[in-house]
Amino acid sequence: MSVLGDLYAGQSSIDFRPKWRISLVVAVVAIVVSLLLLFVRGLNLSIDFEGGGVWEVPVADDVTVAQARDAVSSAENARIQVVRTSSGNLIQIQAGSAALDRSDEIVAQMAELGDVTTDDVNVSEIGPTWGDRITSQAVRALVFFFIAVALYLAWRLEWRMAIGALAAVVHDLVITAGVYSLFAFEVSPATVIALLTILGYSLYDTVVVYDKVHENQNGILGERMGPSDLINTSMNQVLMRSINTTITTVLPVTSMLFIGGFLLGGAGIRSFALALFIGLLLGTYSSIFVAAPVLVWLKQRQPEARRAAEIEARREKRAERGRTWGDADDGVDDELAETASESGDDGAPSSRLDDDPSLLTPGGGPPRPRKKGKRR
Fold first, then answer.
1. pLDDT given at position 170
2. Which domains occur in the chain, in start order?
């Protein structure tokens, strides 16, 4: 059967164990780099978190962002973008709280840009307290999520699996935030919602693997295999299921990201879909290359696992010693066979013993006959 056929049937034999040590090093390095990026560069927070104003005006289809920036000179350091809607294009300007003092000037300049009256310019003011409230609620939800997941997995599976699952989730969140910081993607409330959403997807992939491990370790495989072999076998059994889940989930998210976010210009959809896209890919990766090796590392620290590893090491040493002696015996047999092949056609060693029987006795003469004892 082909590799794809074995993979589809859940009978693949991919050896993940050599890759796990490398993947853990890569995960630690990626987390450290992401944390450094967050401390050094920070996140590009939207106006919903920093506070400020949003001005929107309908414009002709040929108006560009550069023209809008030149026309609206009062909005310094503002984010300007073209928003496409079913009724036409809009120029949207987002600026910080300092720009609110010049709101009348910005409205007049935008009305002139769109060739409309000032009443057609939509103005929205957002205070920073709203973003702070959303952030605190998101952090509170994240803490409750971690506690609930840890308690449930520790009860349903085991506490080592709970630690591995939380390690994978933290890996996904930190690296996603690092990607946002590296490329200066805007973090909006939709991004926060998406980050909370990918927690479920990341956890799902990990629990699928752990549930198979739990099932196998309570069966025959648990009696015959060590932790590393058992988890590697379980991973191969559910690998196709994880791949199918990821593909069927990433495809609609990709459609939202590129069609709704970039082609149609939906800023909210783009923020939501981008975080989902990054998180889903990281969730699949972490379930294979973070959660699994963390569980192996924890299980190998168990006393019974250490004793089993020592017994297996001694068994392999004895087997290696036996193979070494076997190779030596084979060498002696080969040497004797070579000597026999040089002796003659019948394989018996050729020497002067056949020609001179006197050599069989110490004196060099013929053998002396035995004396017959007297009968009593």
1. 92
2. 15-44+130-306 (1.20.1640.10), 52-126 (3.30.70.3220)
